[in-house]
């Protein structure tokens, strides 16, 4: 099974809503996503993405079926050549190497087409699967950010990973 990355399409809304209507996924994402996640929420996200950040927020697709999302977010000011990367996969697609494949694809694209030299990600420390995806994609662990977030009523640690353009 191979994955590709592509721009979001409005017709992806139903599949996106089904993926994000999962508390296991939302538990490892930043706050701000509604739960339950409805088709109208997905449509709003897709329209906003297409109007504002088209090339850096992409659908992860297998055989034209949306299985997740990946995005790269350029930082500002003195960090302008750095970008944060975030991603998720639908639960049926966990453990199949698709997250690593998608991450490698977008990193290659960013390094080849932009002036960004540093990509970073900050998964929650207890999200071992996401940490493994980053490591398999060549990211290096820089350290732990202790009690750096407050999620679902508790403080959580994060891991700081980065990938540097050679």
From TrEMBL:
Organism, as annotated: Candidatus Enterococcus moelleringii
Lineage: Bacteria, Bacillati, Bacillota, Bacilli, Lactobacillales
Protein name: GNAT family N-acetyltransferase
Organism superkingdom: Bacteria
Annotated ranges, domain N-acetyltransferase: 3-166
PROSITE patterns: GNAT
